[in-house]
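Sample intake sheet
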Amino acid sequence: MTEIDYYELLEVSRDADKSVIKKAYRKMAMKYHPDKNPGDSEAEESFKAVNEAYQVLSDQEKRAIYDRHGKAGLEGHGQQRGGFSGGFDDLGSVFEEMFGSSFGGGGSRRQRKSYNYNLDVAVEVRLEFNEAIFGCKKDIKYHYKTACKSCKGTGAKDGKLSTCSTCAGQGQVHARQGFMTFAQTCPTCQGSGQAASASCKKCNGTGYDEVKDNFKVDIPEGVNDGMRIRVSNKGNIAPDGTRGDLYLEVSVKEDSHFVRHDDDIYYEAPIFFTQVALGGKITIPGLRGELELEIPAGAKDKQQFTFKNEGVKSVQGYGKGNLVVQIKIEYPKKLDNEQKELLEKLQESFGVESKPHETSFEGMFEKAKKWFS
């Protein structure tokens, strides 16, 4: 891997500027980092090679030498194969993106909240197929948290906290993985550096009380399964009165006939074989009323017909999707004597045209005879 051209390794052109090179390096470093590829020796070698390439291409002098003489020209200019003598600032920022600012163990400890619950709340709201398409009003019942007044959200008796014994007040604990050392948020104090020596009896050390609530919300037209709707200031409440948001996670039931894909609607229309042979118009159901489908004579099984703007209204306001109807040709399960006779007469009336297999197989029969003669 280390023999690959540095520009190819970072997937940049030879005239790329420093910002492009830096962006490419960060992308590759995150892709090949050992913690994202545990036990993958090839990824580890790629990670080292990417760092080596960046050390050279991010340094104006080294890059000029490399462009003229290649790797051989860098010997004696402080370049160490696979080393980490350069690029540490950028490597650190890459790790911050991957693991948060807890990487490294250096720098000042962030100020942490004194309460141990998130302000935002997520609640599932189940919708019928038609409710999601046309919108509706829903009664939302849920619980939110509010800081315990006795301990002010700390979970400690009388709100008194002491230095956390797990992290010695640092808010972080360190762990070594391979050749790197990482700092992680202390699991005991959640990064605050302080912990309760005795639990609050009123809230049993949780730091909060739960309150039941319900309200009606307008579900907009066009929402789909998996979407989230934010309701401002309906979340948990912090000790200082700050309140989070409530997120409604939409779950939509399937319909027995219609199938939704994004803003398009699909369904299958059964058509009797005589209708296909003759062609004609039939009335079909649409989302907003009846529609007329014209079936051309000789239509094929599973052929689709599209009705523009008859689908779901986009929740983002981009117009409406389409309604797509797929026909399914159906044949009689059994025939009475009269029906058989009529069909036989119909077949005879077409003459040679009703027996296309005979013309098609003629040459094949002769060919097969020759094989065995």
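Comment: Residues 80-89, 95-111 have pLDDT under 50 and may be disordered. The longest helix spans residues 41-57.
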